[in-house]
What does this fold into?
Amino acid sequence: MAAKKILLIVCDGLSDRPVKEFDRKTPLQAARKPAMDALARHGISGTMDIIGHGVIPGSDTAHLALFGYDPYKVYTGRGPIEAAGAGVDVSRDDVAFRCNFATVDDSFNVLDRRAGRIKTGTGELAKAVTGMTIEDVSTVFKEGSEHRGVLVLKGVGLDHRVTDVDPHHEGKVLVSRPMVPGAEKTARVVNEFVKRSATILSTHPVNKKRVEDGLPPANAILPRGAGSLKELEPINDLYGMKCAAVAGVTLVKGICRMVGMTVPDVPGATGGLDTDYRAKGVAALRLLETHDFVFVNVKAGDVAGHDGDFRTKVRVVESIDMMLGLVLKDIHEDVVVALTCDHSTPVSVKEHSADPVPLTISGGGSRVDGVKEFDEISVASGALGRIRGTDLMPILMGVADRARKFGA
Amino acid sequence: MAAKKILLIVCDGLSDRPVKEFDRKTPLQAARKPAMDALARHGISGTMDIIGHGVIPGSDTAHLALFGYDPYKVYTGRGPIEAAGAGVDVSRDDVAFRCNFATVDDSFNVLDRRAGRIKTGTGELAKAVTGMTIEDVSTVFKEGSEHRGVLVLKGVGLDHRVTDVDPHHEGKVLVSRPMVPGAEKTARVVNEFVKRSATILSTHPVNKKRVEDGLPPANAILPRGAGSLKELEPINDLYGMKCAAVAGVTLVKGICRMVGMTVPDVPGATGGLDTDYRAKGVAALRLLETHDFVFVNVKAGDVAGHDGDFRTKVRVVESIDMMLGLVLKDIHEDVVVALTCDHSTPVSVKEHSADPVPLTISGGGSRVDGVKEFDEISVASGALGRIRGTDLMPILMGVADRARKFGA
It folds into this structure.
């Protein structure tokens, strides 16, 4: 049997709970969504606990699980994921840290761990401290939102098992120490980075201006959460497929790049409510011509969920349905199409929740069950049953005739 | 989202199999149970394998699993559970043993492992041997039913990994030996307890009378099944909830106390067919005012199952339904209510069986599926699917908005 291509569409946070004020329906139950329902009618459905029962998934851990990586194993420290989110490439030999800009005194006591929650100027500060060479290690530093940033060390002989520089509360800046033999170099380099960057930051015009304005200067960088991607087998190797992603939001793009997918920038794909659904659908179809596995993340449902906005979430469902209809119209019936969510973001909660998400798989060698609608409840009586996030890729590989045989 | 309270009602052994003579219905299918059915209609349902597929749960292991403890991990030896059942407090540093009163000769050969299944006088014998101090360890001994009893060692430096004194058949009384370095003290203390208690028992009036009556004297105590609670994290810490229980039967009360729940004595809650259902419902509602999690066990269904009495079991269903109706009338809709069983006790088997049990979750952030009746078959098409006993608490935590997020 020839191996089939796979299209995985993840509707970020679209899964929900019944809402009292709207006839106890979920947004998926309330929306008109002929394409999603057609997919369910022509495939098999079920529910999925992305990480596990009663575990609220983050967007990062959720996507790792959906791609078949056990987040409890590969999630060594937040550093690489934050770096991915900030758009910094992290390769498997690198060590990445989350960082704060902080305010310290002359004796390196932390006066404010967030430098007054500094909002502007961090881009200039980051440019001033990135690109050092310490021993034979090169450093990349990039600002994140507000007082946040990421530090990536690139070189040989690095190990992420070092303690934090950030004391996590006011007090003396800590000296990073190796937690295992072999991590000494990494600790030395990060300590040296902290020293050198503090010297640079202390005289930087952005900080001089802040002091003049009576604001706490961002005169130190405090790394923490060291992590590496050593345990993360590149996705193309893991599945023997050429994988690509269409995503708007930086964190998701970062994770896709981190696992080794091709992630083109799609004009109009913003990761917001204003995203160009049509452009995403077209981009996915185009990538399917040259790739075996294409992943699409549509963020808007999560945004509406966080806003607690039922009506907008219903409109998001209908927009995604339009995109899906466009894709299904032009897609080869051999392509395995999976539609699901990375987690629930109920409008009644305005946050991620632990509720399982709906899942439908259609096309390729898929069976067909009796489920006629794509929503949280209808899919639960489907032939897929209740599975885990890390089960999805193996199941898709099976339906796409890409699974491996065990035994004779 | 504000965290919700949780009420878990466990109908002990109520789950059953179809009974030929009663139109191939189960007691749950045959009973009138408007409150249970209403709960199912307003929530999500499924089936649950308490321990695992094809494992017949005991009441002890079942309740541990329902409270989220892996019984294979925390069930070190029966000692602590027997002690809990006998109403003896066991703390985390203690080591507890199950014991038999036995008849031995002068050379410590076991003549009768059960001292003629002694029925009376063990309370007096227990009083005579409890409260020793051996090295710096104090001992608590309490009689159980018939020839049974429990021994709890309280002190520092104890370890439950010691061999049994009880030879498990007629023969020489064994000397307890440490199975790991560090358990020597425990072995010494239990051996000394066996020696000293035999001396006391040999001259005790209860035994003199037994010999006069031609009965075998209960002149030795044989400990076995040493266990500790070291691995059992207190339930309030585990979930960050204040937990309480309403239960009539001693073993279940003991397990609830063992995991750290508040277990008030409810007048009229007997653990038998004559239990005061209304009193239990009222007690549960009152405990919900001051606790986050309230567990209710109603034993009567198990009793009717062991008796093989279909008609009585149907009446038990209807009595529990009355209690549930009373509770649901007065409960806040925000409270998450879960209704299930700890195991099946089919009237056709008269014993526990491995059949999965029905489960319905309603209220709080619960979804609503299409299940309309609470019985073994109707719930199986529900949106919860088929879960394990240890999944229940995480799922309830999710529905009650008490779950933790993993990732960002």
